[in-house]
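User: structure tokens for this one?
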Amino acid sequence: MVPAPSIVRVPWWTLGLVFTAILAWGTPGATDLFIYDRAALARGEWWRLLTGHLTHFSGTHLLNNLVVLAPAAWLVETRCRSDAATLFVLAALGISIALWINDPRLVQFAGASGIAIAFLVYAVLRGLHERGPWRVVCAILLLITGTKLVAEGCLEWRFSDWQTTSGFVPVWLSHVIGASSGLAWYLRRQTGRQDQRPMSGQVPQSRSVRLDG
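Assistant:
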């Protein structure tokens, strides 16, 4: 059974990601300093591999990403705080490196959609272990996410509202790597839990207690 989210625990990682993304958008010059920029990375500005995912091209772009990122990251962090940090780094680096290797024509990249999908996939996969309506909700969200990725990759489906008017389109590879990062970390965590269980047929050792009297 996966523990329910804690209302008392403050989701510092989630608040930090959201605040940083808003601050980067609202601070003049911050986008130019932190965006994924191929030429700047070639000059050794390696921080952009991480910070590029917290920059956005427009306020609507930021809002669309935060609508998914904030609740998904909260679901992950309230269950295990260390997973939030690991997922962000794993997804951000994975996406940036994949873009660098597989898409040399991509000059600039920004947006938290990839890491948002990483958090979402990990959260709903863990939610499948729970009971009740939440398990059904997670199954539906997982189906929707998978359908979206297939539609983007195979049918070249794109949102047509804010992307076209802003002059940029989503990068499908970032979404795929984000989803893969969430899946990979989920499988890693499941493997770790299974390694801690006693082997089949093995009786767990009990602690001997000596009573004086």
